[in-house]
Amino acid sequence: xxxxxxxxxxxxxxxxxxxxAAYPEEGAGLLLGREADGKREVFDILPLTNSREDxxxxxxxxxxxxDMLAGEMEAMRRGVDIVGVFHSHPDHPxxxxxxDRDWALPWYSYIITSVHQGQQAGSRSWRLADDRSTxxxxxxxxxxxxxx
Length: 148
What we know:
By secondary structure, the protein is an alpha/beta fold. Helix content is 23%, strand content 41%.
């Protein structure tokens, strides 16, 4: 079954800018949205500070339990859910690493943005299989702002 993640061009640009600002370290944050009738949509993001120790931030990110709790509280306040995580791969492809698979959860979408020499080079979204064996790519559907 093909899965899709709908996100506005503005929010995707925010994710790209967050990855560029974090470069040469990984940047990360939470995707806020809703899933209904098999459709998942991102309404906003919560950019976070990479809490990984200094020496590892160039190729690892850490979202703490406190970050997740704060994200859950903010999502509840807004009447939405955490539907995923976004993070950047500095000077690396936008596909999950083995480390990403080890720490991922099957019910989330994972947007990975490749950042080459400080400039975003595209994003892809992934979902982890329920048995945690592999990621499957999830199509990103970019919505445009409505014209007034």
